[in-house]
Design a protein that fits this description.
InterPro entries: ZP-C, ZP-C_dom, ZP-N, ZP_chr, ZP_dom. This is Zona pellucida sperm-binding protein 3. This protein has 6 helices and 19 strands. The protein has 466 residues and is α+β, with helices and mostly antiparallel strands. The chain starts with a helix and ends with a helix.
């Protein structure tokens, strides 16, 4: 009986020992798992949206702290990256981050906790994918750690974060329409945006196109510029500059500026000129102006060269104008104007907008580089894949690259001194038509005389034979 009690007590003690050891080992095992990369505590530091190689699918992730946040805006995307990218407390360097195949660097990176990329949808080599209902712009954020200073080691692995912005292909417009400035081609040739620019001469009452290209000194040239915008938004046409030359090359010499400084009709400032823009406009996509006829004093402008120049009083000129079309709601300013000089009031006046936008016509300082930063207008520039948006330093070059030249000519200018001959010249000179008539009459008279002689000779021969 005593042996049975002893055996039962021993078995009970053994079971109790096994139970305690198993409970202790389970606790230790849970504690150790909490410190491994696959533990649940680690997942609390891995925000949603970033692919971390050692996190298995299905594990919990804290969505409160996003290491990479993307804002998809109307024409650009903004990517904000936390410097604690991996949630380990070790901050990465902003110089180790780049965006897209073009490896664009961060827009802003201070001493704070984030790095910001702000780029256009087409920039940095992003890829556009079109589906039936959506437009998807895809790019990626790259992290490539580099050794610091003279060190030859790194303490983190490279990573790539896919990024995309999705937009609906159809929907209601909730903001103002895009306001592009298209680049025109010469004459009536259409651009890729289907804009056609025209420069032509009009008759005196502006009712139709002028058929003759010959003018007399003292006459006015009526010039009309227009743009055919097709299916685009309504646009307003501007004449930035016009130059007269003796050849189609606008850079040839001699040359004379008619319009300059982004819409200043400087020819009207001359003492013997009353050139001016026609105000008000008849249409927003047309602009008309008059120029008093002139000719170059140099011999190169004459149609006939020496020694026939005194018999050929025609001088030729070509007029080349730079035309620009912009959105119709563009506010007039020193770069969007049409200004004429009034000799009556001795002031510059504008076809649209306040008079003070023409004040730069007097000094000639109307370019973007001559405006203060707060007064510089916005130039909508068509974005191109892989190209960054223009900065303030290259606004002027971008603006100039949008201009194309339209040429009319040759125009022939006739001096008034050659319109009529003096009285002595009229008496002593026989007109050419009269000389021709006299020659014809003489030839006919000779033919009649010769015919009569032949007829008489034949009659004599007949009478002798009979």
């Amino acid at each position: 009986m005593g042996q049975r009690v002893t055996l039962g007590f021993g078995v009970l003690m053994w079971l109790l020992t096994e139970l305690l050891s198993t409970s202790s080992w389970g606790s230790l095992q849970r504690d150790s798992l909490a410190g491994t990369p696959s533990g649940s505590l680690l997942s609390e530091h891995r925000p949603h949206g970033v692919y971390v190689p050692w996190l298995r699918p299905g594990q919990l992730r804290d969505v409160r702290l996003h290491p990479v946040a993307v804002q998809c805006k109307e024409a650009k995307m903004v990517i904000i990256v936390r410097k604690d990218l991996f949630g380990t407390g070790r901050l990465i360097k902003a110089t180790d981050l780049s965006l897209g195949p073009a490896s664009c660097k961060a827009t802003t990176s201070g001493v704070g906790e984030t790095v910001t990329f702000e780029v256009g949808l087409h920039e940095c080599g992003s890829i556009l994918q079109m589906t039936q209902d959506s437009l998807i712009y895809r790019t990626h954020l790259s992290y490539k750690p580099k050794p610091s200073g003279s060190q030859v080691i790194v303490r983190s692995n490279p990573a790539v974060v896919p990024i995309h912005c999705t937009y609906p292909r159809t929907g209601n417009v909730s903001s103002k329409a895009i306001k592009p400035t298209w680049a025109p081609f010469s004459s009536t040739i259409s651009t890729e945006e289907k804009l056609a620019f025209i420069l032509r001469l009009m008759n005196d009452d502006w009712s139709a196109e002028r058929t003759s290209a010959v003018f007399h000194l003292g006459e006015e040239l009526h010039i009309e510029a227009s743009v055919n915008a097709g299916d685009h938004i309504p646009m307003i046409l501007l004449v930035d500059n016009c130059v007269a030359t003796v050849s189609p090359d606008k850079d040839s010499k001699p040359r004379y500026n008619i319009v300059d400084f982004y819409g200043c009709l400087v020819d009207g400032k001359q003492e013997d000129s009353f050139s001016a823009f026609r105000s008000p406009r008849i249409q927003s996509d047309k602009i008309q102006f008059t120029v008093d006829a002139f000719r170059f004093s140099e011999r190169e402008s004459l149609v006939c060269n020496f020694p026939l120049e005194k018999y050929c009083p025609l001088s030729r000129i070509y007029i080349t104008c730079s035309l620009r079309a912009t959105a119709i709601d563009q506010a007039p300013d020193p770069l969007h104007k049409a200004c004429s000089f009034s000799k009556v009031n001795n002031v510059w006046s504008s076809v649209e907008g306040p008079r003070n936008i023409c004040s730069c016509c007097e000094t000639g300082n109307c370019g973007p580089q001559d405006l203060t930063r707060g007064l510089r207008p916005f130039f909508p520039v068509p974005r191109r894949i892989g190209r960054a948006a223009p900065s303030d330093s290259d606004v002027n070059s971008t603006f100039a690259s949008q201009l194309e030249d339209v040429v009319i000519g040759p125009l022939f200018i006739l001096e008034d001194s050659h319109l009529a001959m003096t009285k002595d010249q009229a008496v002593s000179t026989t007109p050419v038509p009269e000389l021709v008539l006299m020659a014809v009459v003489g030839v006919l008279s000779c033919m009649v005389v010769m015919g009569s002689l032949l007829l008489c000779q034949r009659r004599k021969v007949v009478s002798v034979s009979t």
